[in-house]
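--- STAGE predict ---
source: upstream dedup step, 1 unique chain passed
mode: sequence only
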Amino acid sequence: MQYHAYELAHAWVSPVRAASQGLKFALDMPFNPMGKTLWGRQTSSACEMFEELTRRYCKPEFGITDVQIEDKTVPVTENVVLSKGFSDLLHFTRDVSRDDPKVLLVAPMSGHYATLLRGTVRDMLPEHDVYITDWRDARSVPVSAGAFGMNDYVDYIIEFIQLLGPSTHVIAVCQSVVPTLVATARLAMADDPCQPASLTLMGGPIDTRINPTVVNTHVDSKDMAWFERMLISTVPYSHPGFLRKVYPGFIQLNGFLAMNLDKHIDAHHRQFENMVVGDEDPIVAHKAFYEEYLSVMDLPAEFFLETVKIVFKDHALPKGEMTHRGVSVDFKAIQKTILMTVEGENDDICAVGQTQAAHAICVNVPDAMRRHYVQPQVGHYGVFNGQRWRSVIQPRIRNMIRGV
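--- STAGE serialize ---
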């Protein structure tokens, strides 16, 4: 019923949004003297903020049309290499002949779209041949496509890596580090020639018993029945995924906002003040951030519940109890892949040590093939995006890849 209530609320507020937009349009007309008064500017700004906060945000575009390579502007096009029920394998094709390392970015299926890694992609493109997993919103996937759980996620990653072939470098972010590490182990167990040349795990929950965050303690305080009862809904009739059970994006977004509610309130208060006085640069930056942040997708219920149980409840990876398709996953088999872990000092979602734990379970990776780095003064998002990602973290990954 949560999903139906959400849809009803969205429908109910639509006329109010239309009226708000109409009022803003009238106040912003060049020859309306009321629009130039303090009251007019405040009212127009309030109408615009109301529209933005009540809008249903669609999937953003990557919007990467070119890249600078050796002082030249090179066109970039997006091409779907492989399309599957719950994801496309997207290739950012550069219009240039270069033998650069092939990199697969495994985006998290954790509420936000793969476009959250837009900056990650952009900064890797000048010196790498970049692919990314572009996960679909579960409410857009018909029930006829079947269920999608942790095993399916691992299967997708294995298939994508095998499609790209030997010497592929894999970078997994946030939630995706778990299935990507499992996929790497399964390839190693089979001595597959397509085992990744390197595997970089960034800000992901390998062992959530280490330095538990608010997220970890919250999960520990609830049983699995609570998660299924309180967080799982059925997609309403108006969407292609009608009757599919999902963890809705709007519930996830509420959780994201609640974690740092004061910061979001302050940010919107500053935005209102900037809009009243017409300070354009911070206005544009605020809108760009929240258009991405407020764009969320539904997750398949099976995948979400299995992730909660496997990663946060059972701690299957560090305990050596992880299975895939009924087969025990042997992380000791990983011996030919360079393993790099990256964490943020101020990460309040995946604390320091939780990703580094991958080294403790991949015991047969030679010491010379191990890397670990903690970036000071960044949170979860700063591990894979922003100034410190560009100037410090990405060059370290680049050097590791180039050194293979």
